Amino acid sequence: MNLESIAKAILIAGLGLTALGGLIWLAARLGLPLGRLPGDIRIQGENFSVYFPVVTGLLISVILTIVLNLMIRLIRK
Length: 77
What we know:
By secondary structure, the protein is mainly alpha-helical. The chain is built from two helices and two strands. It has helices spanning 3-30, 54-76, and strands at residues 41-44, 49-52. The chain is elongated. The chain starts with a helix and ends with a helix.
C-alpha cells in the first residue's frame, strides 16, 4: 500500500467523521429524540439508574453501515 492511498483513506475518513458530527449536531438542534426513542430501556431505582439505548444503537448502526458502504464504493472507483 503506497502513501497516496493511505492519505486518501485518512482524508475520506476525516470527511466522513466531520459529516457525521455535523449530522448529530443538526439532529440535536432540530430536537430529534435520539436516545429517547421507543424501545430504549431505562431502569431507575432510588440510588441508581441504568440506560440501554437499544433502538438508538440499532438506528445508528444501520445509518453507519449505509454511509460506510457508500464510502467504500466511492474509494474503489
